[in-house]
Every structure is written in C-alpha cells, then in structure tokens.
Amino acid sequence: MNHAPYALHPQLADDTHPLTTLALCELRLMDDANYPWLILVPRVADAREMIDLDADQRRQLTDEIDFAARLLRTAFRPYKLNIAALGNMVEQLHVHVIGREQGDPAWPAPVWGRVAARPYSPEQLVARIAQLQAALPN
C-alpha cells in the first residue's frame, strides 16, 4: 500500500449523495430510486478489503453496518435487507446496505446488473434524504 490520504473514490462520489458522517464511515445514499440503498465508506486510506482494517475498525464497521440497516428498517420497513461488500467495480472498501421488497425491479435476484439505475429527481432526492435524516437517532 502507498498510504495516500483517505479520499472518496470518484465513482462513489458520482453515484452517491452524502447523508451523514459516522465515527468510521461516510454514510451515503446510492443514487438509485429503485431501492432504499445506503453505502458505508470507511475513511481509511488504501482500504480495499475488510481485512485491511485493524480490529477496532472492523468492530466499528460492523456497528455502523448495523446502524445503517436499522436506519433503513426504521425509515422504510423493507421486507429484506441485503448487505454486501463486493468492490469488483470500485476497489475502495465500501459496504452496500439495501432495502428490498418482494416485487421490486430486481426481486428476488441481487440488484446488480438487473435493471438500470433510476437517479433521483432533485425533489425525490430532497424527500429521501429528509426521510432518512428524520429516522436518524438524535
């Protein structure tokens, strides 16, 4: 590893909107109105895999995945939660937390490569972020 300072990968910056900052991660909203979809990005330089985090960071990431999943459950009451860290297209470590419904555009398959992303309109984006922020604990 070259130990460059942490920076959000340009593809993640293009595909997501900031929601809040947690102790370890940036919590971001995926720009796909097909699903309630959050992305956690640990602010750790050069992290590509969970094993690139130290033990405390891995525990914190687990806590923040739990936080994001509970946030989606509170805000949207999804039928199922999908949680994944793939990184095949964007190598920077990031974790997807996706609320799924029976009958959503990709159900029951994984969301990747099934249907085109449906970017939020400006009005939808404001409403979705407000809905999530209202569900954040104080």
From TrEMBL:
InterPro entries assigned: HIT-like, HIT-like_sf, HIT_Hint
Domain of life: Bacteria
Name recorded for this polypeptide: HIT family protein
UniProt GO molecular function: catalytic activity
UniProt domain HIT: residue ranges: 38-107
PROSITE patterns tied to this protein: HIT_2
